[in-house]
Amino acid sequence: MGAAKDLVRLLILVEVVVAIAGPGAAALSMDYYAMTCPFAEYIVRNVVSEAVMGDPTLAAGLLRLHFHDCFVQGCDASVLLDSTAGNTAEKDAPANKSLRGFEVIDKIKQMLEAQCPGVVSCADVLAFAARDAVLFAGGPYYGVPTGRRDGSRSVFSDTFTALPAPFLNASSLISLFATHGFNVQDMVALSGGHTLGVAHCAAFKTRLTTETATLDSGLGSSLAAACKSGGDSATATFDRTSTAFDGVYFKELQQRRGLLSSDQTLFESPETKQLVNMFAMNPGYFFFAFQQGMLKMGQIDLKEGDHGEVRKSCRVVNSGRW
Ligand code: HEM
Ligand SMILES: *[C@@H]1O[C@H](CO)[C@@H](O)[C@H](O)[C@H]1NC(C)=O
Ligand SMILES: *[C@@H]1O[C@H](CO)[C@@H](O)[C@H](O)[C@H]1NC(C)=O
């Protein structure tokens, strides 16, 4: 009788764990490196701190790297792998346009390998580094559960369907994000990652001529001038405070100063407009929703124990080939 009860209890427990983690998902934990690499988090923070003090725009690069990692093949550092003779990697896909921060990750990894070789995965390094980048830019601090494993697949064409295109409308963004379990609030808050950084004219020039009704005319003409003189590789910041993690991105959407179509659509579409207004009015609420979104994003399609490794170099798989 007692044994039967225990079994029932165990089954319920298993069910609850599976419900939280999803079937076959690897579970992360908050003190994963406590015994094996207790200073891992400090090492990451120090290198990120130094890097963004030298170049504040790198915070944007580090945040975007984590996003591009997680949306393609899950958070497994696939975005960090270099192309090889027989394979074009994710980072060399057109959507990589201007991915930045690889050298910062290399430096962190090098220091971690000196301290505790073969212990801290590159996917976890990315998750920590993105969090710290946000923190140093004035954004929220949130705990990052760890224990991710690095994957071995990185194929440029995987990015075509996995990453959102800058011309998507709100409904398409909602559907794409929903495939990873994000709700509408998560999607709008995560889009707020564009409070940092820049985009190239190639990504927004179409909006300049086709969306004049939802584009501030002063901004429109200055962007058009910049793109005319600099071509596709000219850049513009997403908001006026591009190295500060704040609510200004959402305020600018209200002023029709969104840079990408996928930014402005959030204010123009009834499904997302109220969230934009709420985040613009209350940056604290944006910070809260952003943390929730990042926590979810950091757990997309994690590799299970046997299906991953801890890379020695973030740029190559341990076997040296694939
Ligand atoms: C909602 C769908 C999204 C779309 C369509 C999108 C698209 C883009 C595009 C086109 C760029 C500019 C690339 C270039 O021209 O160089 C960019 C930059 C950036 N994205 Fe997104 N993105 C999205 C979501 C996100 C999310 C969820 C995050 C992070 C939480 C993020 C973080 C960034 C950052 C920080 C930059 C600036 C990078 C830099 O300055 O180096 N984006 N995004
Ligand atoms: C991104 O891909 C392009 C090709 O589309 C390539 O020329 C460039 O070097 C890549 N950038 C990075 C940072 O790997
Ligand atoms: C959004 O884009 C999709 C795909 O292009 C299209 O089918 C849909 O009608 C668009 N929705 C709105 C509200 O414009």
TrEMBL record:
Required co-factor(s) are:
heme b; Ca(2+)
**BP term (GO), one:** response to oxidative stress
Q: Which residues form the Plant heme peroxidase family profile domain?
A: 27-318
* Gene Ontology CC, one term: extracellular region
The EC code for this enzyme is 1.11.1.7
Signal sequence residues: 1-26
Asked if Calcium is a keyword of the record, the answer is yes
* Residue sites binding Ca(2+) 2 per the record: T195, D239, D246
Q: What class of enzyme is it?
A: oxidoreductase
Known InterPro entries for this protein?
Haem_peroxidase, Haem_peroxidase_sf, Peroxidase_pln, Peroxidases_AS, Peroxidases_heam-ligand_BS, Secretory_peroxidase
- Its protein name is Peroxidase
Species name for this entry?
Lolium multiflorum (Italian ryegrass)
